[in-house]
Amino acid sequence: MDDQALIAQWQAEERQPFEGWNFSYLKDRWHEAQPAWSYDALVRTLLCDADSFLDMGTGGGEKLLSFADALPSNTIATEGYPPNLIRARENLKPHGIEVVPYDCGMDDHLPFADDSFALVINRHEAYDAVEVARVLRPGGKHIFTVPIYPRPETVVRVMARLEQAGLVRRLTARLLEIRDAEGMAHLLDERRRSG
């Protein structure tokens, strides 16, 4: 493909509306490092004991639907990006899953009562750890991933906020399982030396 054709392809893709969380159109065009553990397997394991479940920042609900066979009847999702909110409601309503608008940058509180959920997941959405602690019932579990771009210090900030919310103490004792911590420490160390 010559440069002009490639630029035209990029411009056409740029005009496409972004909605949902389905990036299949990028198949074979990008590479993502995979950790030594499986987020999906971990969530599936925790769903076995969960009678209530919150998926924060569901996108279009695509990942949530990949767990459809294991979801408890009390499953709720949040989404703050208006085009994704519409898509998520279309995708999840047939499965009896309510999608509630929530944007951490605009909303002070998650729109749920204290101690509402046995399991809360968050794969990429900005959120307030204090609010997660509030809606997570005692003994509940919170699984999250932290994007480490553009700087890995994001992880340090998130962990500090979780500690301030009282989640680290609760999670360390019973809930938090840090996977690939050695790799994370190595990455942070490498970035500090090169930065």
In angstroms, what separates the terminal alpha carbons?
Answer: 37 Å
Runs in which pLDDT lies below 50 for 5 or more consecutive residues are 169-195
Going across the biggest sheet, name each strand in turn.
3-2-1-4-5
CATH fold descriptor: Rossmann fold
What would CATH call the homologous superfamily?
A: Vaccinia Virus protein VP39
Tally of helical runs: 8
The geometry reads as globular
Helical content stands at 40-55%
CATH class: Alpha Beta
| Named CATH architecture | 3-Layer(aba) Sandwich
Total count of strands:
5
Order of secondary-structure elements: HHEHEHEEHEHHH
Name the structural class. alpha/beta
Radius of gyration: 18 Å
Report what the structure shows:
The chain has a single domain, classed as 3-Layer(aba) Sandwich (Rossmann fold). The protein starts with a helix and ends with a helix. β4, α5 (129-135) and β5 form a beta-alpha-beta unit. The chain is globular. The chain has helices at 3-14, 39-47, 62-65, 82-92, 129-135, 153-164, 167-175, 181-194; strands at 52-56, 74-79, 98-101, 117-122, 136-144. Residues 169-195 have low confidence and may be disordered. The chain has 195 residues and is an alpha/beta fold. A 5-stranded parallel β-sheet has the order 3-2-1-4-5, with helices on both faces.
